[in-house]
Amino acid sequence: MKLGSPKSISAYPKTILPIAASVGGLALFLIFASVLLVYQPIGTKVSGYFYKVDHAPAIGLLSQNETRIIENWVNDTNKKRTAVDLSTNKTVDSDTNMTVEIDTNKTVKTFDIGTSKTADSGPNKIADSGCDLYHGIWVHDPAGPLYSNNSCPVLTQMQNCQGNGRPDKDYENYRWKPTKCDLPRFDPKKFLELMRGKTLAFIGDSVARNQMESMLCILWQASIPSPSFPPVNRGNKRMQRYYFRSTSTTIIRIWSSWLVHKTTESFDFAPEGVDKLHLDAPDETFMGDVPTCDVLVLSSGHWFAKRSVYILNNEIVGGQLWWPDNSRKKKIDSTKAFEISVETVMSALVTSLDYKGLTVVRSYSPDHYEGGAWNTGGSCTGKIKPAVDGELVESEFTNTMHDKQVSGFNRGIKKKTNKSRVAFMDITKPFSYRHDGHPGPYRSLDPNKITKRSADGRPPPQDCLHWCMPGPVDTWNEFLMETIRRDFEAHDS
Ligand SMILES: *[C@@H]1O[C@H](CO)[C@@H](O)[C@H](O)[C@H]1NC(C)=O
Ligand SMILES: *[C@@H]1O[C@H](CO)[C@@H](O)[C@H](O)[C@H]1NC(C)=O
Ligand SMILES: *[C@@H]1O[C@H](CO)[C@@H](O)[C@H](O)[C@H]1NC(C)=O
Ligand SMILES: *[C@@H]1O[C@H](CO)[C@@H](O)[C@H](O)[C@H]1NC(C)=O
Ligand SMILES: *[C@@H]1O[C@H](CO)[C@@H](O)[C@H](O)[C@H]1NC(C)=O
Ligand SMILES: *[C@@H]1O[C@H](CO)[C@@H](O)[C@H](O)[C@H]1NC(C)=O
Ligand SMILES: *[C@@H]1O[C@H](CO)[C@@H](O)[C@H](O)[C@H]1NC(C)=O
């Protein structure tokens, strides 16, 4: 039987936990590098791994000194830039239609930043404002992505699929078309204008980093050659912080694997060392920064497959890949723990007295290890375009995680006041079609990496969880921009 055929897929384990366990291994394996990015200063032994060609550091945490490296590279890039096609036609926002043709007349309108507010309030926009953005189809769009691997200096090598030798490129040329309206193409200048004087924070795991880098790559295009060029990372080890001078917009990212309070000391019958998640307390590493933010994008889920102990009301109620004593019964599993964590965080944010911003929860990001798990022959090798309906492989685990997240979100916002602003960015279903959007075997620059199946049909090691940049993940920021626009419009009136 061919790996990846629908037959082998339906033979997936029916229970959640074995899949969760294997995804856990994956998380451990893939997220390791991300953790390093957060905790390891650049320039030590690992530097070779994190430096891109041209010596641009991946988006690690840069000290003031290291920031210079990025500026240098950007200056070099700028010279190259003349050769790169940065024609403004490419950033056209065809805001009333899915027109993929470049319309020069509209370009003028799109870049009329000063009047973006009035431009946005045309009859079409108002009609669109209630439209369900997440129900629709992927359509081919030769206009292509908003940036390239060469024009974005802040791009983790693991996501630089083209730079890592991925041979196909057409996966970059699809746009999401909601059934009842259009999702406007991301307009970096409009976005910065919308976020004038404001702070946007991405909080979560390596998939949050994926989205934050996509945002930076897109915005980077707008900041050249304006006075905000180049944006500078003013962050520290805990928090990355990019400041766009032209509009005083700040984009930050804070790592939080589970979004809830984590300890490692021994607790009751759980020994020191194993991560303990206090499911009823939000993660203090980001909660303290929340009052300074205007928009939060929360992203979590994949780490619930990783080894940890679940604690609720000061009592151990479960564990993932950790349970010393089978005579004891677990009260909750990892998916329930995920649900509670989302409820806890949402509840804390909507009842916070100091935070008045918009909270966006980005729904569970589907992975595409077809025909097995990451370590049992699962693969997205050879996927070069979005799945069509008949091909779509439903993942029971993804569906469960999504449903738990929705219910955690809904429970959490029960306590909302009339000042609370929340949105659920429901990308799970649209992205279940994008098995072509992952790095697959093109995860690194290693010239000796294996990219083909072996003689016995086994696929090479691969990443079918994170997303290529540029690639479909850029659409998340189009969803985000539209979500922010709608929220700001509703609150300004
Ligand atoms: C930054 O550079 C200054 C001198 O240019 C040096 O004294 C300092 O130790 C450097 N800091 C780091 C973190 O490397
Ligand atoms: C990059 O170029 C800008 C403008 O040309 C200049 O002010 C800046 O000092 C340069 N940065 C470096 C590190 O050379
Ligand atoms: C882009 O627009 C310019 C006019 O603004 C036009 O001359 C050029 O041909 C356009 N490029 C493409 C690829 O359509
Ligand atoms: C939208 O596109 C369709 C064809 O794709 C066209 O028939 C229609 O007139 C367009 N509408 C607008 C408002 O441009
Ligand atoms: C652009 O505008 C000019 C003048 O207003 C008009 O003649 C032309 O047809 C327009 N082009 C498109 C593609 O709409
Ligand atoms: C970008 O991708 C191209 C292949 O499409 C590759 O030749 C180039 O080296 C890559 N650049 C970077 C900076 O990764
Ligand atoms: C919002 O809540 C405040 C205080 O709880 C109340 O005074 C006000 O009337 C409420 N506004 C709306 C529109 O419900």
From TrEMBL:
Its main location: membrane. GO terms for molecular function: O-acetyltransferase activity. GO terms for cellular component: Golgi apparatus; membrane. The chain crosses the membrane at residues 16-39. Residues 130-182 form the Trichome birefringence-like N-terminal domain. It is a single-pass membrane protein. Pfam families: PC-Esterase, PMR5N. Belongs to the PC-esterase family. TBL subfamily. This is Uncharacterized protein. It comes from Mikania micrantha.
